[in-house]
């Protein structure tokens, strides 16, 4: 049983950390811990208003001086991702940690601004584009223990996902939970393929790609799923499940914090070390076999590059 807690995180006084979805849930708790250790945290959020409110709450809840930089980044818009990355490049010399954390879960079928199915577009393609746009800043950073980190948040639901390259955007049929599982499987295929491409690069670029999942964490992600369904009974059920089964968001954020700052190899998968890997403190584990499928990872990378018009210099 792992006993690691954020108390073991190093000081991050000169580090710049980008967290998507930083205004609530896992992103909010992760932002708190990064900032408490001296990092400048860029809160990359769809709603600047909600992010400013969250930043004010974080500052009020701690005696430490927190360096928080709120910026708009809507992962459902490739233009917004590009604008965010351009603004960051103008103001920062490097990004030491990028936490690809934001996401949507099991919502009715919709499409992003660019015409992608929303869960696949936000959870995977938006983060693929963001990582590619910020890649020069990652390479330029000093990083943690010498390497910048790309931390991609997946879910245990990746085990239900299947890659159907003939219908990645669910235009023929749609199941909201199946679509969520596919998007989380895509997160892992991307994280591992990025590390393989880093390993194959001619030079050591000083960037490490790590994946994680939070276990069953009590956050507003489940409540949004229920609200989007329009079913009041589902909302009650989600609240009850969160209360009985879920661990608090602070504990759920620990795998992301561990992946970002602890001594882990590129390509690692950090997950809770407790009951069924859904609760407890973080440990390095293994995701399902499908997530390590190199052919699927290459096909997904090629599709993502074409779909987003973002190419990594690898």
Automatic annotation (TrEMBL):
Q: Does the keyword DNA-binding apply?
A: no
GO molecular function per UniProt = oxidoreductase activity
In terms of Gene3D superfamilies, this protein maps to:
NAD(P)-binding Rossmann-like Domain
Q: Tell me one Pfam family matched here.
A: adh_short
Query: Sorted alphabetically, which InterPro entries does this protein's record hold?
Result: NAD(P)-bd_dom_sf (IPR036291), SDR_fam (IPR002347)
Chain segments annotated as transmembrane: none
Q: Which UniProt keywords apply?
A: Oxidoreductase
Q: What is this protein called?
A: Short-chain dehydrogenase/reductase SDR
Protein source organism: Halorubrum aidingense JCM 13560
